Amino acid sequence: MGIVENCYPELNWIETWLNSSSTKKAIGIHPSASYVLISKNVHEAFHASGDTVRNSARLLPDLIQDGIRLLVYAGMAGESFIEPGNEAWVEQLDNKFHDEFKRSTSLPWKTIESDTKAGEVRFAGGGGFTAGNLTFVKVYEAGHMVPYDQPEAALDLFIRWIFDFPFHLPERMLIPDLGDEVRLRNETQTFWSQCEPASPPIGDIMYCYEERAVTAMHLLSLTLCWLVSSVRSLSYWSDQDVLFSPASFSEQNAVSASTISGNYSLRVMQPDPSLCDPTVKQYAGFLDVSSGKHLFFWFFESRISPENAPLTLWLSGGPGGSSAIGMLNALGPCNIANGGRDTTFNNYSWNTYSNMLFLDQPVGAGYSYSTDNSTVGTTPDAAEDMYAFLQLFLEKFPAYASAPFHVAAESYGGMYGPHIAALIYRKNKELASDPSSSTQPKKINLASVILANPYTDPKVQFPTIPVYVCDGPYALLDPAGSRCQAWKSKIPTCERLIQLCYDFDAPVVCVPAADYCFYNLYSELLDLGRNVYDVRRDCNVEHSGLDCYPEFDWIQTWLNMSSSKEAIGIDPSLHFRLASPEVGLAFDASGDSARNSATLLPPLIEDGIRLLVYAGEMDMTQCNFIGNERWMENLDSLFQEEFKRSRPIPWMTVGSGVKAGEVRYAGGDGRTAGNMTFVKVFQAGHMVPHDQPKAALDLFTRWIFNVPFTSSRNESPPSAWGSCIGCALQIRQRMCTLQSADNLPQIDHAAHEVFCDSASRTKLTPLEQTWGSSSKEDSKATDFDAGSVRLASLPGHQLRVTEPDPSLCDPTVVQHAGFLDITDKKHLFFWFFESRKSPEKAPLTLWLNGGPGGSSAMGMLFELGPCNIANEGLNTTFNPYSWNTYSNMIFLDQPAFAGYSYSSDNSTLNSTPDAAEDVYAFLQLFFAKYPQYASAPFHIAAESYGGMFGPHIGSVIHEKNKMLASMFASRPGLATELKTINLVSIILANGHTDPKVQFSSIPQYVCDGPYAVLDPNSTECVSWKEKVPTCERLIRTCYDFDTPQTCIPAVYFCWFKVWDPLFYLNKNVYDVRKTCGDARNQDCYPEFKWIRRWMNNSLTKQAIGIDPSLNFELVSLRVQLAFHGHGDSVRNSAGLLPELIGDGIRLLVYAGATDLACNFMGNEAWVEKLDNCFHDEFKQSKAFPWIAVESGRTAGEVRSATGGRFSAGNLTFVKVYDAGHMMPHDQPEAALDLFTRWIFDIPLHLPWSDATSLEKLTGL
């Protein structure tokens, strides 16, 4: 035996084990056979032939050239290579990646499971998003046999390579330590390898972001690394002491969580009545979340008519700021005074006319504490706790449950407010479906959201910091100076990083955005020598504007006094903290502060929940009035256009006639405070109620009672003055008849008089009667129950139907609408229109839009439906080219969250096969309800991502039909509820069907197509086309193995490296003929906004029979992320079609010639490659002109297999001239011609001279 065997006794053991008779018998080896670990004869023969000095490396370049990847790894012994020449020969290898590899530098490689630094990697090819095409790995602490010396590292290396996952991506990303500065934990290394030292400050990392122009793909690849490796979750804190002291609190008034999920309870007591405001009842206590988190609240009744007054929740910001900031220094019943030794009565408290709740949240803020070291790191999580608190508070105090409820939040509360309001809104909608359940939470009467100098839309607001300082009305710096110019130069990077956070919403993209923008835009404010919360005041601060207000120290002093704690009922060991740095760091670590809360508001606004945003004009932070006014103008809501057209009008305080600010509003016609209102408050900074208490009370009171800001003490009140909605009507009347106001200490009587109106009206005006009687409960939602259909064969499914108002959309035909209920979780909305011609004989067509997550209302109201959206969404117009001219039409919103479809448990689908099963169930129930359509020829028509949906639904129907046929054949006379669906054809409209073929066609269309946008020889085209082989290889892996682990890399690479560049062409990606500033946000088609507006209009919902609380979403981002996150968008739906075509189900694929997204070249290519019974015939076919019957115009070109002159074909492709992605919108007459001829199998090449009219051709 040789030297190697002597060094490794295990090698001798292997020989012994494999030569044992029991082993041979178990393997199946003849007992006489002898096992030799290393053959001396073979060894000598190879040496004798000179084989060991021949060059095998020369064989590799051809393989690499053709896409076969090469990995070379070598172990180290201590500090030197055992095989020092491996890296050298790889570097010298003459191949297509030679130069790139030679320029490459070593990057660290860490194992996924142990996070151990296992070696160094050099690679070429793949763009940094794969394991590379030519890769060399040096393995630490390993010799010649790496898997023997480092088994975990070897498996990590092997798995990454065979699944093509990058070696240089770490398990963890930026994690903040609780230290003086944010640092990198666990020596995390990323793409920015030149950023040294190993643990650089955040600022250095951000420098790398700027210099390297990091793209979404870099960051998404990091997210992918987490996903596919099943790594342990992020840990923000480790080995820290318990942050908050425990406190005991009286259990005698505890309320258990009987109506909400989770282990919640509420402990309540009444503080000493002499505290803060002796004129009202007070309650305080804790919301206990499990046994770990405990949130403190303090409640004060309204000074006037508490039983009829609204209820307002006040939240201060931070994150981690106690609401005592508002309660004791701005708008609460008392103000801190005398260095924190006591308080004084506040004449202008907001509890003058409203019951007020002050909540310390999340845990760690104020008196709120944790006993198990837990904290909250995101606003959505904080909102869940706030919702639980409100439910338990209203259960404990039911007298306030029906009061109009307002959410008022300041500063970072601009994040909290929209989230808690959206959660209340969603829960209320869920309650509407089962209002009688005793286990459900109670409906919260959400009336409005008030955002006070809020931080809500970071992408809009951060850039306004240097704008305010350099160009604003209180500019401090020369706008042309170097400091302003340098400051503003940081804006594009900040905007780009925040946009990535908006698009992908993960800590890995949001943390860098937040850190960059805070350090490069906000932190500059701290060097100006001014109070960042009030530009008028000098203040040299080290950390934040809080240091400019001595009252904040006084608040901490007072609330930490043992006498104060005893009077409130607080455990004396509990420590009060005005602002929690731990909470701030937790939110920073999740990237919460770079997310967009503004997008939660439009559905609320459109459903009648009012929005007030106010800002003091002296605030310099990102919460300044410039940024707040801008994001409101940008808000895509029902009132956007009206708000944009509005002009500032003066607002005068009641009683004094002082000009307090300027108001812009939309909604209300000038008779109310508006539905969407912005107020700039004069002579006030970040904390308006502190700087202008009287004006703040005036503003708040007008808002909650919906009194116009344009009315003043010295004017004759208009008829709507004092008019209020619902319960607010009662409080105005009660306020006006109260005789005890004079007994209340220091009440602003002038304000009280004008709000009541000297006449003290007791009768309601017609306007008040109209508003007061309106109720969501008057909706027709319950009408669905009367027509519900169930099948025993589909347990847990039912179809609820109703007939919409016949005047809607198409008054000439019968309509049905309703929901498919899948258990009690998912609810899919449909709208059916009978054919205008002979519905009893017409075919039936199911139309599906794409997305995924797109509502079929796009097709119904914008392309091919019975009516077209018009007049900015105010109404619709009759569509003479509707596809229901000759076919019965079903428009289905699927999956849940598309359109009106919803999920009661917040779940959604993530794959097309699952969606297809739901659609099949819908069709069976539809035919059970309407058997007259069951035997009609059935067609599936699907657009865009419908190219995925269509084949899957067709395949499910086909398989189920075969199963039923088999059952009938084996059991003649068998009766079954399920129908054989008469599937005749599938129509794919500008579809996304075969990603491997279609992604490759994108740069081909842009650079070489008939509407080429770029020079084919330009660097952009060359670079773009170079991405195609990697995309094709990744998708091929997905096709071959079909798992999320193999498909997700293809999703990220192909969508972001091959498809995403379309958005930078300044073209409408759906129609290359048109320029468009922001195709990504659908701004190319204003009609999309109109559709949302019309479908969310309460009158439309009532006419259809939809619950008014249900929100319509044209395209659901949630669904898109779910499908992409599962890898669905790179799977091959085309592979399902050959079997259907072989069994006689016809296929039509059409594409508009000017579509960039799902272009005609890619669609024609995959149809030509489709391995089916008509493959050869279609490949040999030539394009012939298609002439529209009615107009005689050449509308496009047709290629077809089988049918000749006598049919429209079994496999047909049509290129439509002068049309983009949504062909029926661009060419409505041609679209109806194509559709009609296809479903009636009339040749598309029929000469115009042979045609008379479509109606005669159809025979209907």
SSE inventory with pairings:
Blueprint: H1 3-7, H2 9-19, H3 21-27, H4 40-48, H5 60-65, E1 70-77, E2 80-81, H6 85-92, H7 98-103, E3 107-110, E4 117-124, E5 134-139, H8 146-149, H9 151-162, H10 202-212, H11 216-229, E6 255-256, E7 264-269, E8 282-289, E9 293-300, E10 311-315, H12 324-329, E11 334-337, E12 342-345, E13 355-359, E14 369-370, H13 379-396, E15 405-410, H14 413-433, E16 446-452, H15 458-461, H16 464-471, H17 482-489, H18 491-504, H19 507-522, E17 530-531, E18 534-538, H20 550-559, H21 562-568, H22 581-590, H23 601-606, E19 610-616, H24 625-634, H25 640-645, E20 649-652, E21 659-666, E22 676-681, H26 688-691, H27 693-704, H28 727-737, H29 749-756, H30 766-773, H31 783-786, E23 789-790, E24 797-802, E25 815-822, E26 826-833, E27 844-848, H32 857-862, E28 867-870, E29 875-878, E30 888-892, E31 902-903, H33 912-929, E32 938-943, H34 946-970, E33 983-989, H35 995-1008, H36 1019-1026, H37 1028-1041, H38 1044-1059, H39 1086-1095, H40 1098-1104, H41 1117-1125, H42 1137-1142, E34 1146-1152, H43 1160-1169, H44 1175-1180, E35 1184-1187, E36 1194-1201, ...
Parallel strand pairs: 1-5, 10-13, 10-15, 15-16, 16-19, 19-22, 27-30, 27-32, 32-33, 33-34, 34-37
Antiparallel strand pairs: 1-2, 3-4, 4-5, 6-7, 7-8, 8-9, 9-13, 9-14, 11-12, 17-18, 20-21, 21-22, 23-24, 24-25, 25-26, 26-30, 26-31, 28-29, 35-36, 36-37
